[in-house]
Amino acid sequence: MATVMLVEDERKLRDLVRSYLDLGLPDVPGETVAREVRAIAPTPIVMLTARSAEDDRIRGLELGADDYVTKPFSPRELVLRVQAILRRGGMATEQGVTSYGEGALVIDQPRRHVTVNGAEVSLTPTEWGILVALATVPGRVYSRFELINRVRGYEFEGYERTVDSHVKNLRRKIEDDPGNPRIVQTVLGGGYRLGLASDD
Prior knowledge:
single chain; alpha/beta; three-stranded parallel sheet; 39% helix
């Protein structure tokens, strides 16, 4: 069963749903908690904060958050966002195991495993969703708008920089040289594509 982490300083929100990270914690900065959790586990993280500046959102996403919600917010919207994260985190199809680039990248959708050069890689639900979306048709260019809608299931404010942040994190995990990516490639003016051909 999929779980999402909750760290929240308001009891009413803690009782609502166990799945969020409040950046305004009284003792430990939420960013520190997010960084430490992300270093050891792919637990989905939704950040709750009153900080609404774009740079703050981008910083949160670069720390590995799957979503970033500014206060005040609708509890219903919050629950829907968590449901979207859990759906993409648990997405599995009957396609089975697919390899790319002569086995360099292997995606096992039913088990939600990714290996790169034989080593298993731990991805967040958003990183997983982006990689699976790109692997659907290797070589096809997916715009940022397409990716955010495929991964999140709804239009998201600031989607372009949001996708870029998640791709940056994904590349750190799967590329030998993130500055010169071979697997997730940027297409200027277009978006992203999987740079490896399917082995099928």
